[in-house]
Write a structure and sequence with these properties.
The chain is of the alpha+beta class. 37% of the residues lie in helices and 31% in strands. It has a 4-stranded antiparallel β-sheet with strand order 2-3-1-4. Strand 2 and strand 3 form a beta hairpin.
Length: 99
Amino acid sequence: MLLIIGTIRLPPDRLDEARPVMERMASASRAEDGCLEYSYAQDVFEPGLIRVTEVWSDRIALDAHFRAPHLADWRASWPGLGIGERKLVLYEAGEPMPT
């Protein structure tokens, strides 16, 4: 299992404009084979900071995601939405365990 955890940052006043674009990206990603979770969450303490969580079954699924047209559309939207800073990290994990 692969996890992508991190943040993106956009101007807080652009969040309403970004929300439908982010929703299209998340919905299309969630429909992909091997996507176990895909979410964005607005940080409650830092306006404009969006927390990203992705969980993929394996590298094949993730590589297919990287080639998906909706990912290219998402990336193309960044300049218009003011998305600049991105800090995403890929982790390899074992099977989930209850805590």
